[in-house]
Amino acid sequence: MPWTGSAKTQTITYRGGRDPATSSQELIMEELLSVEQAAEFFGTSVRFPRRLIAERRIRFVRLGRLVRIPRSSLEQFVSSGTVEPMVYRKKRVS
Fold first, then answer.
1. Which of 3, 5, 31, 91 is deepest in the core (most CB within 10 A)?
2. pTM over 0.70
3. pLDDT the model gives residue 18
4. Domain residues of the chain, as ranges?
């Protein structure tokens, strides 16, 4: 299965219609990070992303015995936990 692309994006092209699931016969994969890279992304120890995987709180990919996490999954996890600041209005004193 030939692939072309940069380190961030890989394009896998199926020839001869071997993959009936995709109508365009092309599948674009995003960047997959190791658990150590995910911990660096979060700024935590390796234990935190491993716990998220064990609790099935983020998407991950198994490649044999290796575990990889899509970057978009990490970004989605962070954005879902983001709390917007409250805007306080000054009360008028009469």
1. 31
2. no
3. 53
4. 1-30, 32-76
